[in-house]
Write a structure and sequence with these properties.
binds 5'-O-[(R)-(carboxyoxy)(hydroxy)phosphoryl]adenosine, single chain, binds zinc ion, alpha/beta
């Protein structure tokens, strides 16, 4: 017999963020995060070995803070939910091993969370009344897709990127423009001073499907910058950033609204690091308003990697009775089609 509003500890360590959060039902009690991104920035990306070591040195402190700020004793917890994949194996193993020890020691269930499902679940934290069916725009560093959520545990991927994920494209274009890692927030900031005047390809627009591609767009940015440099011509990096941002994100807004109208749902949600982008948030707001759709956007801190979303997905799994054995292993990749 499981209770409706259990007290769940969520733990996330799939990349360079070590995070822990506590929820009671859908109410978030605490939300802690320690990031090694400033260490990683020196290398222009995430170095797996460094990420693992950073997780190891902070995980117990982050969990202790989450419990303290939630005002709960660990003995009160009903379950521990932890990301088991996808992500960097060494990094995942730190959070997973910690969670297993915690759950075993307390004699409470372990819940294995697919990181992507965590991003999808972030919207539940925003609106207590949110209920499927709805369409979700998932746009992170690893995945970009339009997803139809049928029920709390059933999904259908309508389509997505055929090559790079949106976040990956932001990171690659940031490198071309000599901006630091992770590129998304830097491109967004630079784009505020720029104009959408650089001609860039708009991908697969109007083909009726939900698939799109980012590699052509990235190459077009590279070619534009190289050609300008070779000719010794001046160009505004801010204009390149603004033009790329618009080309990369407008398609996502368009496909998301198309998905909602085709599936006749009234609600749209979004998740993943790229959804922290202010331009994307504004465009989604405007497009959903125009189409008469209700938009539930997670707070920006719940779009990028965090443990609150892992606890939120943990709650759905708890209610469905999906618990993991202590033999649960970390997985570097989990196909999107099997979310
Ligand atoms: O969801 P996330 O934190 O980690 C993954 O699961 O991948 O997403 C990270 C990605 C990075 O590629 C980062 O550049 C991008 O999200 N990102 C952004 C913004 N903030 C983070 N992209 C565009 N605009 C932003 N403000
Ligand atoms: Zn993520």
């Amino acid at each position: 017999m499981h209770m409706k509003n259990p007290l769940i500890l969520g733990i996330e360590s799939s990349c360079d963020e070590t995070a822990a959060a506590v929820i009671r039902g859908r109410v978030l009690l605490s939300d802690e995060i320690a990031s090694s991104s400033s260490v990683q920035a020196k290398f222009g990306g995430v170095v797996p070995e460094i990420a693992s070591r950073e997780h190891l040195s902070v995980v117990d402190g982050v969990v202790a803070r989450a419990l303290k700020h939630a005002g709960v004793q660990k003995e009160e917890l009903d379950a521990v939910a932890v990301t088991y994949g996808a992500g960097l194996l060494g990094a995942l193993l730190v959070g997973l091993s910690f969670a297993k020890g915690f759950a075993y020691g307390l004699g409470i269930p372990l819940i294995g969370v697919n990181h992507i499902r965590g991003h999808l679940a972030a919207a539940y934290l925003e609106d207590e009344a949110l209920a499927p069916p709805f369409i979700t725009l998932l746009a992170s560093g690893g995945h970009t897709a339009i997803i139809y959520t049928k029920s709390e545990t059933e999904f259908e991927v309508l389509g997505g990127t055929l090559d790079d994920a949106a976040g990956e494209a932001f990171d690659k274009v940031a490198r071309i423009l000599s901006l630091p890692y992770p590129g998304g927030p830097h491109i967004e900031a630079l784009a505020r001073n720029g104009k959408n005047v650089v001609p860039l390809p708009r991908m697969l627009k109007g083909n009726g499907g939900y698939d799109f591609s980012y590699s052509g767009l990235k190459t077009a940015v590279l070619n534009y910058c190289h050609t300008k440099e070779q000719r010794g011509e001046e160009f505004e990096k801010a204009d390149v950033a603004a033009s790329f941002q618009s080309a990369a994100l407008d398609i996502l807004v368009q496909k998301t609204v198309e998905g909602a109208l085709e599936r006749r749902v009234k609600t749209v949600t979004a998740g993943g690091g790229v959804v922290a982008n202010g331009y994307l948030r504004e465009r989604l707001q405007a497009a959903c308003k125009q189409a008469g759709l209700k938009l539930i956007l997670p707070e920006k801190r719940h779009c990028t990697d965090n443990a609150a979303m892992i606890a939120a997905e943990g709650l759905l799994q708890y209610r469905a009775g999906n618990f993991a054995p202590l033999s649960l292993n970390a997985e570097a990749s989990i196909p999107l089609r099997s979310v």
